[in-house]
Amino acid sequence: MHLLVEAFRNLLAAGLRDWRLRLVGPWEVALGGGGEDYFRLLRMKSTGIEKFVDWVGPVFDSEQLSAHYRQSSVFVYPSLAGRGEASPLAPLEAMAEGCPTVVSSLECFRDYIQPGLNGWTFDENSRDKAAALAATLQGVLDNESVLTKVRDDAFRTAQRYALPNIADLYLNDFQELVAS
């Protein structure tokens, strides 16, 4: 998240004023966050831009989380996990609510993110990661008509990953295994 806060700071320095950064998620280690020191780091990095940052914290109620996705123009998941993540669901959850995503260019997102069509990626390997993320976000936020189109394509993509569709794929795979 610190990368997102830094990128947002860069956007504000470049003149962005009509957007807010809403940070949703836990900071406590027991809940999956980075811990108290990490939370203090985030607060420190947001010094001077507090009026543009909303600290929501963890949201465990699925309806409330869905509402956050629906109210957001863009969902940003700037993972820096060099080897990727097993199967990050948060971007798909956002897409299912019609919220387009910006993610790292990690391989784990290539199954469902097609940059410029149903979401965007930024180069997490660039020397200045925050600048790379800010540049991607600037391009996204500057073009409302593209944002609308990508929002629609993101929603359609997420429907392919809905539970009934995935369950059918598993059942078909199991049937093929049993038949062979």
What is the element layout, followed by pairings?
Elements: H1 2-13, E1 21-24, H2 36-45, E2 53-57, H3 62-71, E3 75-77, H4 90-96, E4 101-104, E5 119-122, H5 129-141, H6 144-160, H7 163-179
Helix pairs in contact: 1-5, 4-6
Question: Could you describe the 3D structure shown?
Answer:
The chain is built from seven helices and five strands, in the order H-E-H-E-H-E-H-E-E-H-H-H. The chain has helices at residues 2-13, 36-45, 62-71, 90-96, 129-141, 144-160, 163-179; strands at residues 21-24, 53-57, 75-77, 101-104, 119-122. The model has no long low-confidence stretch (mean pLDDT 91). With 180 residues, it is mostly helical. Strands 3-4-5 form a three-stranded parallel beta sheet, sandwiched between helices. Strand 1, helix 2 (36-45) and strand 2 form a beta-alpha-beta unit.
Principal-axis shape: globular
**Content of β-strand:** 5-15%
Strand order of the largest sheet: 3-4-5
Work out the radius of gyration.
Answer: 17 Å
Share in helix? 40-55%
Q: How many helix segments? A: 7
Largest sheet: 3 strands, parallel
| H/E element order | HEHEHEHEEHHH
N- to C-terminal separation?
47 Å
Low-confidence stretches: none
State the total count of DSSP E strands.
5
The pLDDT mean sits at: 91
Alpha-beta content class: mainly alpha
